[in-house]
Design brief:
By secondary structure, the chain is α+β, with helices and mostly antiparallel strands. Helix content is 17%, strand content 53%. Strands 1, 2, 3, 4, 5, 6, 7, 8, 9, 10, 11 and 12 form a twelve-stranded antiparallel β-sheet that branches. Helix 3 runs parallel beside helix 4. The protein is globular and about 55 Å long.
Length: 297
């Protein structure tokens, strides 16, 4: 009896050790055919000081996006179709210009958001998960050119593809276990083909189980080490350095489905933007605080 009990105890020890040291790859992969939704929340406070004048912008936005994944193509890839189910926005621009939009009752009030709400984005992924093509069905061309610039990052296929492929390339593809950390560059996209690039440290912190479904999520905590502001094709080394006042990010990875199920970002930074005109270099100071959160219900 003693020998049998000792053998069972030893077996349980090795099984627990194997579980504790199990490695996973925390990166999205091709989705199975089906439909799911993502609930987004975003708020922004931005102050730009130019020629001793203050230009303040605030924005709060919530959105529900529906993602539908096709049956696999003959080559193993898939098509993901995105539509916006609902969109609410409250914005204040410099000069105390205010407007609000609610897709359930504000149609026609703010054409910019009507175009966003009614757009359809199709993304074709190859078998390895890379983006091979993006098409956008929208009424972007009906907007004035200066208004188009405000959403060009969201609706212009070539810019959208570049941004999303960059985001996919930022994931760490080596297997990790709880307690492992790694460094990587992370982008936070802005409007008009600009973004913040950060050097970050990611920690695979622990696992948590959702009580009602029993699904296990893998939690990653991100710390921000340094950052720059870039535009267009600028590399990190070409960017304008920013000062990180406060920054934090965490996300939950659903290994079974191969996707991020929840993400929370809080960011407060300041810096300087230099823009070149024909005659001189103009400088503006900025302070930005943003929160960007989303989850799959």
């Amino acid at each position: 009896m003693f020998k049998f009990t000792s053998t069972i105890s030893l077996l349980l020890f090795f099984l627990s050790l194997q579980t504790a040291t199990a490695q996973i790859v925390i990166a999205p992969r091709l989705q199975k055919p089906g439909t799911y939704k993502i609930q987004h929340a975003f708020d922004l406070n931005q102050l730009i000081v130019f020629n001793d004048l203050d230009f303040k912008t605030t924005q709060k936005q919530t959105k529900v996006t529906v993602y539908k994944t096709s049956q696999p193509h003959p080559n193993g890839g898939v098509t993901c179709t995105e539509t916006i189910e609902s969109l609410q926005n409250e914005t204040m621009l410099p000069g105390n210009i205010r407007f609000s939009f609610d897709s359930t009752k504000s149609a026609g009030v703010v054409p910019l958001f009507d175009v966003l709400k009614n757009s359809t984005i199709q993304t074709i992924f190859d078998p390895s998960g890379n983006i091979s093509n993006i098409t956008v069905n929208s009424q972007l061309d009906t907007l004035p050119s200066e208004t188009q610039e405000l959403v060009i990052t969201d609706l212009k296929p070539e810019i959208l593809k570049k941004r999303r492929q960059r985001e996919l390339s930022e994931y760490h593809l080596d297997p990790v276990k709880i307690g492992d950390s790694w460094q990587q560059q992370l982008s936070v996209p802005l409007g008009q083909d600009s973004q913040f690039l950060f050097k970050t440290t990611h920690l695979y912190a622990d696992t948590t189980e959702q009580p009602d479904t029993g699904i296990t999520f893998h939690k990653v905590i991100v710390t921000f080490d340094e950052g720059v502001f870039t535009q267009g094709e600028q590399l990190y080394s070409m960017g304008s350095p920013v000062t990180i006042i406060k920054a934090s990010k965490s996300y939950l990875f659903d290994q079974e489905r191969g996707r991020i199920s929840k993400s929370n970002l809080s960011l407060s930074i300041r810096g300087t933007i230099n823009s070149k005109s024909k005659k001189e270099v103009e400088t503006a100071d900025f302070t930005i605080t943003m929160n960007r959160n989303w989850f799959i219900p």
